[in-house]
Amino acid sequence: MNVMKFSVGERVKIIAKGVVGEVQQTEYRHMVHKGSETLFRRYFVKPESGYSQWFNEDELRSPLELSKESLEQVNRILIDVNLMVGNFDMVKKLSEEIN
Question: What does the domain layout of the chain look like in residue ranges?
């Protein structure tokens, strides 16, 4: 399934360089060789300063990622909501994520 984490025009943080850039192009490759399956998701990123280059998906992250504390607060709110609607399977899953 061709699911890209980032899209063209989206701002991303280049982890190794600690700078923010904009995705200019995306590349998705699915290869099967001797029964081994490999997926490549790459992004051509233009940093705020410097030259554009290709990065693998694991070399980039969203500059808007939440802190651990914020994620825990969001999870607690989601737990409360799911308790109110009686979705106990989701409550259990969210509780496990916090711990």
Answer: 11-61, 68-98
- Per-residue DSSP letter, 6: S
Secondary structure (DSSP) of 34-98: TTEEEEEEEEEEEESSS--EEEEGGGEE-TTPPPHHHHHHHHHHHHHHHHHHT-HHHHHHHHHHH
Sheet containing 11-14: give its strands across: 53-56, 36-47, 19-33, 11-14, 60-61
Displacement of CA 22 from its chain's centroid (Å)? 15
Dump pLDDT digits (tens) for 4-32.
888 999 999 999 988 999 999 999 988 89
HSE on the CB side for 56, CA within 13 Å?
A: 5
For the whole model, what pTM was predicted?
0.59
d(C-alpha 80, C-alpha 2), whole Å: 34
